Every structure is written in C-alpha cells, then in structure tokens.
Amino acid sequence: MNHKFTFLFLIFIPALHVVQVNDSIAQQSPPSQEFKPSGKVWGYTFGDFYYKTGGSQTTSWGKGEYSKKGVDEYAFSFRRIYLGYDYNISPDFASSFLLEGSDLSTDPSNRRSIFIKSCYLKWRNLIPRGELRLGLVPAPAWSAFTESLWGYRSLEKTITDFRGMSRAVDAGICLSGIIDSSGNYGYNFLYGNGSGVSPENLQLKVYYGEVYAYFLNKKIVVDGFAEYEPAKEGKDKIILKGLLCFKNDKISAGIEYVRQIWNEGAMWIRISQPAGNYSDTSLSDIISSGISFYLTGNIIKDKLKVVTRFDLFDNDGNSKDTLYAAKSWDATLSTYSSSYASDNTYGEKFAMVALDYTPHKNIHIMPNIWINGYDHKPESVSLPRKTDVAPRLTFHYIFK
Fold this sequence. Notes:
Layout lengths: L2 H22 L13 E14 L22 E15 L4 E14 L5 E13 L5 E9 L7 H5 L8 H4 L6 E10 L6 E8 L13 E10 L4 E10 L7 E11 L3 E22 L4 E24 L3 E11 L8 E8 L4 E7 L4 E15 L2 E14 L11 E12 L1
Antiparallel strand pairs: 1-2, 1-18, 2-3, 3-4, 4-5, 5-6, 6-7, 7-8, 8-9, 9-10, 10-11, 11-12, 11-14, 12-13, 13-16, 14-15, 16-17, 17-18
C-alpha cells in the first residue's frame, strides 16, 4: 500500500467529521441536560493453584502455560492483574488507561511489576455509528471482539493468542463501528506499528481488519479477521481467521479456525542424523494453522456452568525435520550462529474441562484440568514428547 495514500486517508477521516458537524449544527436542539465529565476505576484478577502432574521433566520450548514447568511443580500464580480507568471528557471524547501485571511481568529484583497495556483517546460519532481510537488500542486479532465470545480468558487464551500469533494491543489508529441501526453488522480496522506494547523499532506497519455479523436475534455470530504485516524482501506475514458462534441463555458453542502464512519467514537449518549434521539450508515458508472448539452450558443458572475446550494445532505444516532459526554462517567456527531455537515438528492437541462456580456475579471459582499433548511427526529427528497435564483451581474476580 502506498504510504502517502495511507497518511492522507488518516488526515481525511477527521475532516469528514468537521463537515458532518457543520452540516448538522442547525438541526441540533439544545441538550436537555448539561454534560458532566465523569470517570470510573475498574479491573479484574485471575490466577490459579496448579500442580503439574504430567509432561517432560525439562524443556525449553512451547507456548503452553505449563510447557516449561517441571513435573511435580506446584504453586499459586497470578496470570493477570488489571487496573483500568475510563474517563468521559465530553459527549464526543473519552479516554482509557490500563495497567497489567502478572507472574511473567517482573522487575530486576524478580518482584511482580506492571506495564502499560493500553492508553488511547476515543472520538465518538466521528462518522455515523462509528468511533476512532488513537493510541495503544486493543487489536482486532482477538481482544477487540472474539475473546468476549469465548468468555473464559481466565481459563485459557483464544487459539490465536495461545499460539503466539499477532498481538493483543498495538499503537496506531483504529476505526470501529456498526453498519446498521440494529447493530447486526460491525467492523474494526486498525493501522498500527506492529510492535504490541513495545515502542516501535521498524518503519513498516501492520494492517488489521475485522468484520462481524449477528443472526437469529443475535444468537449466531460470524466473525472474519485478516492481518497483513509487510516485510522487506517480500517476506510478508498474513493471518486469516474465522469464527462461528451460537449463544443463548443456556449454552454457548463456537468453532474458530486460524491460519498464518509467513513467506520465507526465516533461514532454517534442517538437522539430519547424526545430530549436528547441518543440511538443506534454505529460506522456507512457515505455515501454522489450528482449529478450536468450545462448549459451555448451565448446570444451575447463574451459579454453576460446565466449560469444555478442544484445539488442534500444527506449528508448521511445511516442516518435517527439527529446525533451528539461524541468522548467519560463522566462517571461523564453520557453523551457523542461531538467534533462537525453535522446534516446529510437533502437532499439538489442547483439551480442558472446567466447572465455573459463581457465588457472586463478579466472583468465579473454577476447578479444571489443563492438558496439552504433542503429536510427533515420524520424519522428525526430534524426540517424542510427553503430554503436559496440570490440574488447577482457578479464581477470577472483577471489581468495577
């Protein structure tokens, strides 16, 4: 996309709002009540008492919550701590600020710390039934819409988030809205840095787009998402995702499919037997894909639910050998210098079953079992890997 065109488009959006306001001033009647700025503090926390009862004793690879933990390890953990503040500046402007902490966010002394998760200005009514957000905003990949349909981030991420595709937030400009007056059709479009919560260090930007639709009195939801991340020398990354969900007062069921194509994503060294014999050094496409099924249902209305989830995921449909990402050939040592290690030779299966006990509408106590298995590809030289198993008691409470 021509970057000059993108810049002019971003300038043109506010100009549309100015024209719209000028055309409608004469038709507006004085407000019946004077607007008063207001704000609210909100947040939530979730974590677990977990016990890893199965899996590999030591490992350095995997995106699952317990893939890097040793067997028989147990602890109390905080997986998310949110503290946010929303402020209404005027009828047309609002702002939002959010801090996040967890066991994975620590300071140099290994104490739990916090970071800025989102911070943006919202411009309402910029276009009919639409709004613009500017700053560090939720990205359409999952956090803007599909995560709320799944409804149990406290138990596990959506498949796109779980498997490390895209990002939850990004710094940029986002246009969101509904197309019709009944709210059955909507969209989210974001032009962002592509660096998530970190400051930008690249010139190339990322394009996100999402459209969704409700049917049968909003009992059925269809959502489609696409992301394009340009890169130098044609090594672009594309993510495509679709979700179909049915939801009523008793049950919620959904199926989500995601596919990521990274054109010539990295330089790979295919390792053949014996170990350490480097061969077939080449630039390869990385194609990751997965499908997720979930079903939740009432046992006792407003008090007890059952939650189930099952995912299938292939880290790279192109790989048959153990792969290590390599940046350059070291002539002195006659070997490749690796920037990081990665093993794409496993397919993965994730399963979870939970009970959601709700003593109060903002408090959830959820005994559950978390399982992530590894399907070893026969052509691979990597070793078969044991299934990670972690029974947990998860807690989730909301304050607002």
